[in-house]
Design brief:
PyrdxlP-dep_Trfase_major; single chain; kynurenine-oxoglutarate transaminase activity; Aspartate Aminotransferase, domain 2; globular; binds glutamine; binds 4'-deoxy-4'-aminopyridoxal-5'-phosphate; 394 residues; alpha/beta; 15 strands
Length: 394
């Protein structure tokens, strides 16, 4: 009989239950407004929803090809060209995955050997640390910190020091969850120079590629000279079409890199989401106005939340993109940490947020003790109700 004690692999020892699930459960239990887990509370475009419905009704419900349906691969390739000027062959350089999560897992488990090091900017999305641990590889975090300019940034020397002879991958995320930082050309060039100098692979998570505010501009690192050949670019339909529950994502890379992801991915889900794949192909072909309006609407929600957090003395840092604002709670919560704050906030004010502290490497836990993440990808009425609760609590 299998012992009931300690069935969990030692690779995952030290990982707790997902904080996203905990905070969503807390929102339901307390009837609070959920600004925790990053998912919209409104539907995506009708063209995408009705395309999925008609695919299901017409019987397109069996396994798709392992690499993904041809129409979606073609649409992804067209999208990369239309928005970012990047060319990928839909037959050999595009892979459809079950969300960006599977593309990330496939890339990391398909590439890394035990003991390899992965340089990543923290705070970081929790999947990254989990996949690096499952690969028996080592996370080497470089911390993003608010700068005097009011945006986040990193120290170039700290990045250089993080590289060792064991470094194999730089895992980049821009626009960045949770800070909302959009890496600018100079910052990306620094990463690109280091990747080329040390012959590293860059895994670039660009799921928030269309969610940009003010004059922020998304630059895929694969578009910098010499980078396409060493970069795996990952994205997801979840954020662009408000379909986070469909889990349709993709990876674009030169065929030798894509092969590594495919080898791993075929062992996880093999393939899935057939009717949703065709619907996302329709979404990716929507006119530019759809993508512009998406960002514009989200920016107005960001502004509602920024104002409320300022009034509540929670010192928000203005995001340049994504679904999220990070706030420094020290003025309001001088003696506790972000986790206590997030456990207390629903009772105190009827709003749920995510403690940023859990998104740091354990060795750097102090960096995020005072950081809380609020999501604003909710209907305007939800954001106004949350803003009212936060300002009344102020
Ligand atoms: N990367 C980042 C930075 C994210 O915030 C998320 C959250 N959804 C994902 C990847 C996962 O995307 P998906 O839901 O498509 O798996
Ligand atoms: N990416 C979303 C977030 O950061 C969802 C994460 C999750 O549910 N695992 O909130």
């Amino acid at each position: 009989m299998v012992s009931p004690q300690q069935p969990l692999t030692t690779r995952l020892a030290g990982f707790g239950a997902s904080v996203f699930a905990e905070m969503t459960a807390l929102a339901i239990q307390t009837g609070s407004i959920n600004l925790g887990q990053g998912f919209p509370d409104y539907n995506g475009p009708d063209e995408v929803l009705t395309a999925a419905q008609s695919e299901i009704a017409s019987g397109n419900n069996q396994y798709p090809p392992g690499i993904g349906q041809q129409d979606l691969r073609a649409a992804i390739s067209e999208h990369q060209k239309r928005f970012w000027g990047l060319s990928y062959d839909p037959e050999s350089e595009v892979l459809v995955t079950m969300g960006a999560t599977e593309a990330l897992a496939g890339a990391l488990l398909g590439i890394l050997n035990a003991g390899d090091e992965v340089v990543v900017f923290e705070p970081l999305f929790d999947t990254y640390a989990g996949c690096v641990a499952l690969a028996d590889a080592v996370l080497s975090p470089v911390t993003l910190r608010p700068q005097s300019t009011g945006r986040y940034g990193f120290d170039a020397d700290e990045l250089r020091r993080a590289i060792t002879s064991r470094t194999r991958v730089i895992l980049l995320n821009s626009p960045h969850n949770p800070t909302g930082m959009v890496f600018n050309k100079d910052e990306l060039q620094m990463v690109a120079d280091i990747a080329q100098e040390h012959d590293l692979i860059v895994v670039s998570d660009e799921v928030y590629e269309h969610l940009l505010f003010d004059d922020a501009r998304h630059i895929p690192i694969a578009s910098l000279p010499g980078m396409r050949e060493r970069t795996i670019t990952i994205s997801s339909a979840g954020k662009t079409f408000n379909t986070t529950g469909w889990k349709i994502g993709w990876a674009c890379a030169p065929s030798h890199l894509l092969h590594a992801i495919r080898m791993a991915k075929q062992l996880f889900t093999f393939a899935g989401g057939t009717p949703f794949q065709s619907a996302i192909a329709a979404g990716l072909r929507l006119p530019d106005s759809y993508f512009q309006q998406l960002a514009k609407d989200l920016q107005s929600k960001r502004d509602i939340l920024m104002a409320a957090l300022q009034t509540a003395h929670l010192n928000p840092i203005r995001p340049e993109g994504t679904y999220f604002i990070t706030a420094d709670i020290r003025d309001r919560w001088p003696h506790g940490d972000a986790m206590d704050f997030c456990r207390a906030l629903p009772e105190a004010c009827g709003v749920v947020a995510i403690p940023g502290s859990v998104l740091y490497d354990q060795r750097h836990a102090d960096e995020g003790r005072h950081l809380v993440r609020f999501a604003f990808c909710k209907q305007t009425s939800t954001m106004q109700a949350a803003a009212k609760k936060l300002t009344e609590w102020a």
